[in-house]
Amino acid sequence: MKTGTWLLGAAFFFALASAHAQNISDNDFRQWSFGAYGVGGVATASVVPPKGASPRRLKVSTLTLPGDSAFATAIKGDFVTSAALAGARFTMTLGVLGGDGAFGAGQAIALLLEQAGSLYALPVGETKVESSHAMLPFSGTLVAERFTRVAGGGPVQPVLDGRAATRFGFAAGNSDSLAQTQYYDSFALDLVAPRAAGKAAALATVESVPALSDVALALLSALMAAAGFAAMRRSPARSKRR
Prior knowledge:
Oligomer: single chain
Order of helices and strands: HEEEEEEEEEEEEH
Number of domains: 2
CATH architecture of the largest domain: Sandwich
CATH superfamily of the largest domain: Galactose-binding lectin
CATH class of the largest domain: Mainly Beta
Strand content: 35-45%
Largest sheet: 6 strands, antiparallel
CATH topology of the largest domain: Jelly Rolls
Shape: globular
Distance between the termini: 41 Å
């Protein structure tokens, strides 16, 4: 009984844990939309077909003079969620390869959210200069106040309570860096629900199973006690008849 209860509770726990995670990946940029934002500079994004063993890549080129900034945007159009995202932890992974003019910190990277046509950016790091292909992770937490609206006329900050349909992507760009080019592939985004909320929900689910089993065990114990008491009452009667 206890073993069965533990296994059932574990099954509920892992099922709930998987429901609180989102895993998004893309290797070809076929269902993406591209754009740009910035001040004074120029940024372009274009898909480069595979060549030999090289995969399809997204080529991001920027031209920024002193005082300029320019970022190319890429939004994955074939995935949308209306899940509550506030406090969710994320890891975005990108394959990165340096291109013409890459130097110094490479390009700055931001996680993008798209809601009703508005884009919101959260800076997550820099690529550095990768002379050979490298897989780079960028991690953080989804907090509305940390995002900046970079395009569109929606709210100043994204809505992360589940009331808005959300798409994801990334931005890459530069400031004061003249001409730079970087290549990107193997986009992946792992989202995990807020730890505290997910843990509380999971524990509540797991704990409900033993609670029900305790009731069953109590009823079974009562029945067994009643049966034992009845047997004890019958035994003396049989002794007297002998």
